[in-house]
Predict the structure.
Amino acid sequence: MNAVADPAYEAYMDFLRAKVKLSESWGFDCDDSEIHPMLKPHQRAAVRWNVEGGRRADFLAFGLGKTFVQLETVRIVRSKAGGLALIVLPLGVRLEFARDAAKLGIKVKFIRRADEIEDDETIYLTNYQTIRDGKLDPALFTVASLDEASCLRGFGGTKTFREFMALFTGDAGPGRERNGTSRVPYRFVATATPSPNDYIELLAYAAFLGIMDVSQAKTRFFKRDSTKADKLTLHKHKEKEFWLWVASWALFIQKPSDLGFSDEGYDLPELDIRWHEVPTDHSTAAPEMSGQGRLFRDSNLGVQEAAAEKRDSLPARLAKLLEIRAEDPAAHRILWHDLEREREALERSIPGLVSVYGSQAEADQEGAIIGFSDGLVPELAGKPCMLGSGCNFQRHCAWAIYLGIGFKFNDLIQSIHRLRRFLQTRRVRIDLIYTEAERGIRKETERKWKQHNTMVQQMADIIKEHGLSLASMAQTLSRKMGVERVVVSGPGYDLYNNDNVLELRGMRSNSIGFGLTSIPFSTQYEYSPNYADYGHSEGNEEFFRQMDFSTPEVLRVLMPGRIAAVHVKDRIVPGGMTGLGFQTVYPFHVETIHHFVKHGFAYMGMITIVTDVVRENAQTYRLGHTEVCKDSTKMGVGMPEYLLLFRKPPSSTEKSYADLPVRHLSGREQLCKGCRKIFPAPKRKQKPHERCPECNGEMTRTKHDNEHGPKCYTRTRWQIDAHAFHRSNGDRHLTPEELKGLTHKEIFRLFRGHDLSSIYELEHHVKVGEALELAGKLPTDFMLLQPQSQSDEVWTDITRMLTLNNAQSAAGRENHLCPMQFDIADRAIERWSNPGDTVLDWFGGLMTVPFRAIKKGRKGVGIELSAPYFLDGASYCAAAAAELNTPSLFDLMGGEEAEDDGEGVAA
């Protein structure tokens, strides 16, 4: 669509261009002359980028000089911003920092308390425990860097993360800072390998740096798993954008040539991986929870099975380790283990072995680490979760044996790179011991390793393409703005693949008989990789600012006096974002009402559509039974959906009728199929009109014989509509598979039952559920006994799965994130539009509304930005317009009733 370049159009395009945001810059200009000349070119580039950004992450591969980069970054930022500088370190790393600082002529000091601070020229070092335990307040420092910031990996679930967010940013919520300021304004994180298999870690780093809220990042880039709150899958169409976004605040360097510099002296040593499988005693396989016996042990089944396998296989695994070790008993090597029981077994079996463990005094821990690093201790035992990050053991060691394997890939890869680093001169040997029952764990580890390498390559490609230029990245992303307009029309429908703001501007005023749509739920979802996507917003304010461009156009194109029905749902606000520590509810439906009223619509009320609270809890963890038992004040209620009703004021306020009313035939009226005028029907004993008195067109029949025309709008139907409580019959199209698999009696039996009316009693409802629970028949993944509402303006019977996603799944296509149910569309179209009216959905999605409008004898118009959804929706509307004759369940049942002559009832 070629929109006219007028002020309103330009204002909208300016709004979209302003959406192209990467990471902001909070730092200072940095000249190359300010950086220590000892740093290599790639390290100098990283320091400049850090200083100019002010809040950045350094993901430099092992041996690229991450320590030098951190020291120089905090030194320069402190010199420009004033105040004090702090680097927070993991156990056993401070000696490495002291050595590198001495080479740069930087004075460093390890402290645990504020009274140990001497001057503002020193860079102070401390450990994570000191900050976490409240011994040292980060607010004393202007700039801080977290080395090997693995504490942030457990976003939202660890004490360390929550306290670090509060102590460094000034709020317990990710990316939220009180009064727009930070307790530590300049923040950096550094690690050689962020976990590639747990996107939450990257999002946690972004939150700590103040780049973006975790929940907002989830919405922008990931599709959710409805069965688990934090199981994220990166949208295929968002992969490029996601990694560009990460590259705008995180520097991934695998080798100097990624930034265009020479790789001379930076060749990684050969990695010699050796897997060793030991047999499993399957005779000890524990039975399943149901009591069913198992033939084989499989530690991949769950935590309990894995722990039992670790415990029972220890003697066999230890024997294998000693066998491997015997190849060269005097060699320098590190023995990795996961359990205290394993450490104790190693110490008993290897005289003189030096170990590092949690309950050990810090001085003893650091003494052992430094002794091994300097070659004074030939053999060290430790856990990857303790020593796998930050330590450099390459100078005297090139051999590691793992007494076992586990599910934590990040611990594995980090621990390997304590030895395999740039400047390591020997081949690195890695021996991994596992049991026969742990073959699944090995397979998963190898899969994650491959995924890790893929991520590394993606980031390297982005750096090579764009360097460190945010402008180049922004230019790439801004190309995804708007779409080339596509129009698909057919009998009874017009569909547009376009930005709805631009498409609505070209529509004729007062031409739409009924508007029905499900607007994006603010920033809850993104439907397309496009900046015109409403879900691609920084927050609720920006979302409604974009709505400000489309809603006035909807008002303009709607006929005077007609209805626009808007489907919405409130949103959960995570405890991390509220700063309160518990989840709250954002009243999105209230804000939507205010928005439409602001633009001239009259609010007419809403219909409540009840949803499944059990399924909701699986997505949000908000209403968990266990937590409610601990403290029921944390529990709110389930999140229903709402159909909000807005009316465009009619031209005349004398009787408040629409300019062209939506008429429903009463029991004593007839409609002309030609001129669409309604006439009083003859009295009961008289013959009804067969032809129109004005145009001689064919007339509809009366209510006594109305199957040949539109149904009369009886007093009974009016009462039910006004009450807003409907029952759904569940009728849908049969698939060929279902037709083949069902007998006549089964089909009849399936549809003969109906709910019996009774007075509702809460305690009876609970007792029924408890009886099912005791019998093991109460599902945990959906609500089996959903209460049926008798209250006004509540629909409890919407068939949730009756959507076009059924057809999407059957065709192997991508499902819509939240499609509209047929029940909602059908009821609304019949109630608020006339046959022949044009029904508009300006957020078309899979085109459910035009699809159902065609079936209801209306013209369907849909606008959709996403090309895949648009094309799928066009195929459904074409099928509806062609009146494809697929039998429904009721059609089939009716035929069989005639054939069986009541046999199904007896069955």
Q: What stands out?
A: The longest strand covers residues 271-278. The first helix runs from residue 7 to 18. The domain at 271-466 is CATH 3.40.50.300 (Rossmann fold). The CA atoms of residues 820 and 860 lie 15 Å apart.
